[in-house]
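Replying to the earlier thread about multi-chain prediction with a worked example.

Input:
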Amino acid sequence: MPDRFEERELVERAKLDPDAFGALYDRYFPQIYRFAYSRVRDQSLAEDVTSEVFFKALKNIKRYTYSGHPFSSWLYQITLNAVADHYRGAAAKEVELEEGASLPSSEPTVVDEVVRRDRSRRVWSAIDQLPKHQRAAMVLKFGEDRKIEEIAQILGKSSGAVKLLLHRGVERLRRELPPEFELGTP
Amino acid sequence: MDDRELDELFTDPAHHEVVDLLKASRPATPPLDPNFRLHLRAQLMAEARKTLTPRASRSWFPFNLTPSVLAPAMAAVAAGFIVVLGIEIYLANRPTGSPVAVVSPINNKTNVATAEPIEIKFSGPVDKAAVEETVQIEPATSVTKQWVGNTLVIVPNHPLAPNTTYTVTLKPKAAAASANPGNPTSTPKPAVAPTPVVVHFTTVRAPAPPVVPPSFRSAGVTYGFDSRLADSGKILAATWTPAGQLLVTRPGGLPGPATLPSQSPTATAFGSAPTTDVWLMSPIGTPVRLVAPGGNFPAAAPSGGLFSVWRQLQGNQATLEVRDLQGNLVSTVATVDGVPDRPAVWIGPDRLAYVDQGVLRLVGLHSPVVAATLKVDHDGSLAASPNGQFLAVQSTTGSVVLDLTPSTTRRLPDGATGFAWSSKGDLAFTIQRDKGTDLYVVADGKTSRIASGPSGQAWSDLNWAPDAASLLFAARPTEGINTMSVLMLVNRDGSNPIRFGPEREYSAPQWSPSGDLVLFTRRDEAGGNAFWTATSAPSGNDAAEQEALAEVEKFMQARIHGDTSTAQDALDDAGRAAYQAGASSLFSPAGTQFNRYYPVTVQLTGSNPNKFLVGVRIFIAKSGVETSFFEEQLSLTLQAQRYLVDGVKASDTMALGHGPTVVSVQILQAPPGQQVRVRFDADLKPDSVSGDTIQVKDASGQLMAARVSFDPDKHLAIVNVRLRPGTYQLVVTRGVTDINGAPLAQEYSAPLVISR
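Result:
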């Protein structure tokens, strides 16, 4: 992780210095693109969202104030908003499951892959099927190594609510993955 | 990952299994068009230049807090830059008569990475041959030019020098080309600019040079942040070159920089059989050039800009080729039956070891090599010492070290494997026991077990830090359901073992030659190994050097910004007297400004109290353009828990842009003597770098015996000397010339202090 103080200094410079903003872009592009893709599962859409995130960040960076969280938390927030805007704008609906609903048995994403994919791939495929807030929390925690407090800030929820999302996500993976999925064995 | 958070949250063992699995794997790497990232960056930077106010002051910036920390970190960040040089060129003779302007002006860019291609974008059609002819780069740099549409991609043949301002010039043609009067159907050719277009950019600031004598710099380094070499598509294997670039094996047929059409990866070199290509890449994974179509298992030579690579032939045969880093075939040194399954091993700069049907073979680039027949264990370890004298071999009859000079053999303990030689010639290896792994180091002829792993854990993938002070290795559980390997760092004497990086699936660490990055693999979601690099930062072991350099940073920034009180505060009475007596100028002369500086060398000249001699290069600008530089040798002494400048000597001022210059000097202990490494900013004529042009003199001016070699890939002259403690003078004469024949801008001299 970048040093927090150094990051803060870089962000302050980026309010005035295009090169510093470019450095921020270089640093955060991979994770923002990765996170965007995890939400939209489409390369073209992920590119659109990522573009929007960084242009919004550029437009608003002078108003950014350090709140004790990493700068990336702000970018993740913009990403979530951009994804939501996209689905609103496109009149499309993100595939969403209600809390407590089963993973769809007709979907090939889990069951079929049990046969042909390794356990790691299966568990991440299963994450794709979680409700969106659970999915976001799981991706940020296990894919992006964010702290619970940061995730709470990104999602606009309390730390307790994030813990509940993570707990439910893990429990659901444990419960819903098929019997052939023997955790802990290669 | 913060395990405490997860441990607190998940107490049910059933949950632990899911959590452990998630921790040990990564989500799928999303597909990414590398051009998208570059394109978006260019758009953003154009917008940023329109909307962000140019930096007027740094008044918010507390001098005493971050600069020394910021510089290397910014350099690492800047490694992600692709240089897009915006220029304005007006085509005077276009058929329409209207000028065609250009694109994204990004002149005066700083922190430019040294190993990235340079792109010059034109907004309309140009006479490509004419433009190519007029491109000049100063300091002299040999490049390859390629076109992608209206974008000229300039690929330096060697990495650029750090801390250096480069000037790219497009000179005008005498007259615009006109239509051929003999052919009325021909169209007039666009022409290049009527006035020269000049673009400046400055490369990244290099990390501070290591203190001399070297301290335990790598011991206890800390893991910085990591980034994945993912943008360039799938990577099958990667290894560092001595210049800090990567030789990367990729599936055949993948595109290169800016999807250059002129590159010809050979997915079908051998009929329809799947194959691989070997590419030279930057440390962040940007393809620089295809260097071995159809190649596999590359191995970089320790010097000379060469690498070996296997190429499969039809008929179940393979050849071992030696190529240069431009991709030119230098020699085919061997042909074997079957499919090689490992890279050859360089033994010094001109010999190679390889395994043919299980038998060890040696071959020389220039002459045959005779070696005893030795069968190598299946998957057995094979490694050569950096000086080319020793070869460690895990043979079918036991592990041995072959001394190739007198051709003798030394047996290693039974089970010795995983050989790794340090830059100082120490050999590390492991022996797997029933109850864990033992780690050994052979130094000065003595074999010592320096550490033992716990029961149920296997150690492998040994890799020395460049300073030979510590080792990285992978530790993998051999029992239980969790087989996730982590990286460990241990000092060469076995002390202070720590985990390097988060608790994740890591293996195969490889320090970069400069020690600021570690290349490693991490288990991917798809079950394969993805390649990552992590930054590393020195620990408190270099505290003295860091403190001294922090004072220099504060002092220099104060001078650059005209902060008299802060600058004076960094001086003791002797230092103030030296500046007042005219030893150097504390501030820039009227009409000029100190624009930037960087440390050229750091030498520890005393330890009680600590005294450092820090050489700094200071650049002088007129009207915002750097025109000259000079160097100061600052003497710093620890006084009342703070380093103060107590002396200064200044060089003459040297004009920029009139020939190559020295950019750094490092002194390394190389028992029984020392090695002085002199780095230049330009590509040099190799035969101009010799003992005649680079000299070491004692205090009386007596020339000291020295052996000088030159590595053109790093613009690096290496001077091997055997000096007793004392003060000497390094002299680089104007006999050193660049590839265009321009002599060194000015004779260069710098003190060398040998303190022990």
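Chain A touches chain B through 61 residues (CB under 8 Å).

Feel free to reuse this layout for your own posts.
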